[in-house]
């Protein structure tokens, strides 16, 4: 009778699933006349977007299977993993420019992490005057965990003041950017 049940059972009891098991809990209480602050409203909208993203993941068998690979004790369904991914943007941990001297074929190593997975790392190189010299996507290093390799394609004769902009994107579409000036 209660299999798959969830929601309010009475004014003070709620059915919910915790780690796949049905439990009864005390229902939360809210002041009927409360007004949310703008910050609270923004957080509610953000949460609603995460729920919609999780709905998209659940509806797509390939995406659902991918997110199932991230299941842990705390994130026990693909839906939880997807929502967590939506909430958490990737981080750029390290940018190694020691092998970049402004010549085509030289590399920049980027370490980017995420709570689920970094989907793409892009690099933009601009000269000291801000003129974009090149832009491209890094390749995941098959031998390095969380490492991406960007290979320069354009000669840069004026290395001092060169600005390298890194953008790391996760599967949920969150983007984090960082800069390094040489």
Describe this structure in words.
The chain is α+β, with helices and mostly antiparallel strands and 182 residues long. The chain has three domains: 1-32, no CATH class; 35-87, no CATH class; 91-181, Sandwich (Immunoglobulin-like). It contains three helices and eleven strands; from the N terminus they run βββαααββββββββ. Strands 4-5-9-8 form a four-stranded antiparallel sheet, with no helix packed on it. A four-stranded antiparallel sheet has the order 7-6-10-11, with no helix packed on it. β10 and β11 form a beta hairpin. The protein is elongated and about 75 Å long. The mean pLDDT is 90.
Q: Report helical residue fraction.
A: 10-25%
Overall pLDDT confidence: 90
Name of the CATH superfamily of the largest domain: Macroglobulin (MG2) domain
The total count of strands amounts to: 11
What does the radius of gyration come to? Answer: 23 Å
Q: Shape, please?
A: elongated
- How far apart, in Å, are the first and last alpha carbons? 67 Å
Question: Looking across the biggest beta sheet, what order are the strands in?
Answer: 4-5-9-8
CATH architecture of the largest domain: Sandwich
